[in-house]
Amino acid sequence: MQLTFPNGEHPGAAFDYGEISVGSRAGEGICLPGRSLAPHHASLVSDRRGIWLRVPPGTPGVHLNARPIRRIARLQVGDLVCLEQVQIILSEANPQLIDQNIPSAAPPVLGEAQRVSASRVAIRAVSGSLYGRSFTLTEPKLVGRSAACDIRIDDPALSDRQAQFELHGDRVVLRTLGNAEFTAVNGIPVRDAVLSPGDQVVIDQHRFLLEAPGLPARGQDIVRGAGAMAHTQTIKSVRMPSGSAPGGEPVPVEPPSSVDPGALWWLIAAAAVLAAAMTALIVYSPHLGAA
After folding, report:
1. Is the separation of the CB atoms in 199 and 210 below 8 Å?
2. Across-strand partners of 73?
3. CA–CA separation, 175 vs 164, rounded Å?
4. CA-CA distances (angstroms) from residue 69 to 79, 133, 147, 281?
C-alpha cells in the first residue's frame, strides 16, 4: 500500500504493516510543519485485523471520505483521509495490479436467471451527493450530469456522460466516457478498469464502492463460462481417516452390529397386538358403560 499526497505536501510513503504517525512535531513518521496540524495529529495503523485511523482525543479537523472522525475508524484501499487541509490517499502500491484492458464490446443482455444472480452486484455511493444509494448492475449504469443517466451527478466538472459501470460475466468493468482526470480506482488514476469486490471508484469528489459477493478478488484465477454468474462454491472432498490415537496410531473402529431378523419380527407382532387392543377398547368401551 502507498500513502500519497495529491496536493504535494509530502512524498509518497510505503505503508504495509505497523504504525505511521502524522503531525507537525519533528520525529513524527510524517512531519508536516506549517500545515496547522497538531504535534501528533493522527496515526495510521496496520495490523492483522486491518487498517485503522486513530485520532488523539480532542484533535479537530480529521475526516475520512468527508465524514468527521473523533477517535478511530477502519480504513481500506482508496480511502481519502483529510487532516485539516492535508489530504492523504491510501492507494495501491503497484498500479499494474489494476487491469485496464477492458472488453471493447458492450456487455451481453442478461437472461432472467442471470439477472437474479447479477442483482447481488451493486455500486454503492459512500460519499458525495448520492451517499447511501446503491445501484445494481443488472443493466449497465451510466454516470454523468445528463438527466438520462442512471447515476446522475449534478456536478459542472463532469461530462453529461462521464463513465459507465458494466457487468461482463464475472467481471465488473468501469468504462470512462468523459474526462479521465476525474476518475480513479483505489487511488490510482485510470481511464478504464476491471474492478474487483471492495474497489473504490472516485469520480471527481464522488466515491463509489463495488459490492460483489461471490465474484473473484483481484488476482484470483477463476475460470468460468463466458457470460455466466457463479451461484455456488464447491468444496473439494477430503477423505478422513477413521480415527487416531494421541500418538498417531490408528484407532480401530468396530463395525456396526447386525440386527437379528427374528427380533425385528417380534417387534412388529407386538405392535400389531397393541394396535388391536387399542381398537377394541375404543369400540367396546361405550357399550360397556351403557350396560
Report:
1. yes
2. 53
3. 5
4. 13, 22, 34, 78
At 260, is the pLDDT very low, low, confident or very high (cuts 50, 70, 90)?
low
Alpha-carbon span 140 to 150, nearest angstrom? 9
Burial of 90 from C-beta contacts in 10 A (0-12 / 13-18 / 19+): buried
Interval 47-104: pLDDT, tens: 999 999 999 999 999 999 999 999 999 999 999 999 999 999 999 888 888 999 999 9
C-alpha–C-alpha distance, residues 185 and 168, integer Å: 18
CB 76 within 8 A of CB 64: no
CA distances from 217 to 46, 68, 77, 142, 191 (A): 20, 30, 14, 24, 21
Distance CA 181, CA 186 (A): 14
| Strands laid side by side in the 42-47 sheet | 30-31, 18-23, 42-47, 50-54, 72-75
For the stretch 140-153, pLDDT in tens is 999 999 999 999 99
Locus of grid cell 387392543: 277
